[in-house]
Fold this protein.
Amino acid sequence: MKDITYAAPKTIAEATGLLNDKGDRARILAGGTDIIVQVREGRRDIDALVDVKHIAEVNELTCDAKGLVIGAAVPCCVIYENKAIAKAYPGLMDAVTLIGGIQIQSRASLGGNLCNASPAADSIPVLIALEGTCEIAGPKGNRSVPVEQFCTAPGKTVLGRGEFLVRFRFPPPKPHSGAAYLRFIPRNEMDIAVVGAGVAVQLDGSKCKSARIALAAVAPTPLLVADAGAALVGTTLDDAAIAKAAAIAQAAAKPISDMRGDADYRRHLVGVLVKRSLAIAIDRAKP
Amino acid sequence: MTKKLHIACKINGQPAEFLAEPRNSLLEALRDEVKLTGAKEGCNNGNCGACNVILDGRLVNSCLVMAAEVEGKSITTIEGVATKDGLHPLQQCFLEGAALQCGICTPGFIVAAKALLEKNPHPTEHDARHFLAGNLCRCTGYDKIIRAVLEAAGK
């Protein structure tokens, strides 16, 4: 690896100061599962790693009546070993239990997965479906951004000079709601999504009260397809309604062709995964 | 070159100190500074598991941990798996079951399997295969490896 410096600030103010000084010559180190490889392989040219794991706020993890707060550096394994989160947010569990293998889950964080801004990131669709917001600290103060607005291009985010992601906030689960994440990969574990779909639905009796559908690996950024969710509202979530939502999601997908699959194949997978993930979410939403 | 960092941690139950450059991975520090060469560099990008160590109770790829991060932490490497009384049951079962060919993946598999058995002392075959999905063997020895792990679980 090229010569770099390592800093481990203990407060948010110290971190934003360091990041502001170094600008894009510094990157955050949380779990390191992406950034260490990128720097080693020369895919990111930086001078400094700023390890944020000594800052209390990025390690926060609370799940109560007010909702869920997940510090940006909390590793996947700590999230899925938390019984309160597993019970209240099974859709989130779908994602955090399938990112990488056990070794990656020991270190990789949701904050890192989002800030790496891969179009194929496994956690982002369900973070969007669950209406997550990102709390960002910066030299000029804090701001909040909905997860679906955070990534701006492959590897690029809304973070400005000196800013970093501190934590996520999620509202408490709505009554009779459920969420799910599914991805397609050609093997059982340890692969990058050809397509991913994260969905959430809320029921009101036999009808759908609200729904959100988000996709991965079919556009330059993870994609919230608001129209697909809206098409389900007021329906009984019958096969025709679900087929219509899936078709809207397919039309919104703008996939590329690469070694993992061509664009037509990905568009087909969007339909399959939206239908299947909705079936799981609806089942979880039922009383 | 950036100034070297002085790192104090615990390795295989013993206090340890070493110097590392800020750019060094834990794997590089273990092999080149601490001279514990059991953890292997396979892919050096987090896919193969040959460099696996247990860091504060969690199985990690030491190629994806910076040496500077382990200040104050506790590390178990393959060198810490056997005891003065002899080989760990996993090591014995790997030997008796010929669960290795070239041996490069073996330290990683044994450290990972140790982490599995500490969490789940009686894994099913599916549990073991799932847990060890982050460890690659290019001599195609998975069946013997899984059999050795399941046999060790009974001991």
